[in-house]
Amino acid sequence: MQSTATAARHAPPLNGKQLRLLCLDGGVRGMSSLLILKKLMEMIDPDDLPKPCDYFDMISGTGRLQMSVQECINEYKALFSSVFKIRHRVKFTGKNEALENGIKEVVRKRLGDANALFKDSSHRGGCKTFVCATSGNTLEPVVISSYYSDRCVNDLREISHIWEIGAAMFLDGGMGANNPVIKLWEDAQDMFCNGPGLKFKDNLICLVSIGTGLGHLKALGNSEVGLEEADKQGLIEEATRRYITLERSNADLRKCKG
């Protein structure tokens, strides 16, 4: 018999449940991912767009604040206008007060506590979320989840604030290696297919991975992230809107509706 502690690590057995998984890139070009995701949500229900956290069973990259895509877009734009309005390079050396304060304000508005932990203690049976951040000391990828996972650094789960992880994801966006779709596959398999005879692939209705492309790879050195791409947010949005209006792109999105 499983112990209570062990059983709590896993979601209930699937029992025919069809899983939906979502993987999103981070970084300063994340607006592109949000616009594509909004288009997908519109295709699912144009009259009442579902929140990603209500539609997907596990999300890599976002979802902890349970916001709608439009709410994410609005906060993203507000963050850029206040944090990235200075047209020069910003050094992410583990401390960037403007970015941190901007994300703290978003967390405060959503949860009432700017210093809320990434760990989700509400015991909801809903969407599981995790992010891949980069250690400021070793530059190695670190996975932090809102739930207990054998594959994650659970000590960090207990102490990491949401704003800390949000700020770290901007650093990862400059590295060009921030799409953890393999990690999503592995963790979902552990979480949802933990019973005998369960076949993960047979219960997976869709795995949607929305990337932002590879930027110019640069040596991190002092952990500098150039903001030349942040200055091009208008171009990024326009290029993304053109992309999602193409029939080929619409056909791909329809396949992702699940």
UniProtKB/TrEMBL annotation:
Note the SUPFAM superfamilies from the entry. Answer: FabD/lysophospholipase-like
Q: Name one GO biological process term.
A: lipid catabolic process
Among Gene3D superfamilies, the record links this protein to:
Cytosolic phospholipase A2 catalytic domain (3.40.1090.10)
Q: Which GO terms describe its cellular component?
A: membrane
For whether the record's keyword set contains Lipid metabolism, the answer is: yes
GO: which molecular function terms? calcium-independent phospholipase A2 activity
The answer, when asked if Lipid metabolism is one of the entry's keywords, is: yes
Which residues fall in a coiled-coil region? Answer: none
Q: Which UniProt keywords apply?
A: Hydrolase, Lipid degradation, Lipid metabolism
Name this polypeptide is given: FabD/lysophospholipase-like protein
Origin species, per record, is Polyplosphaeria fusca
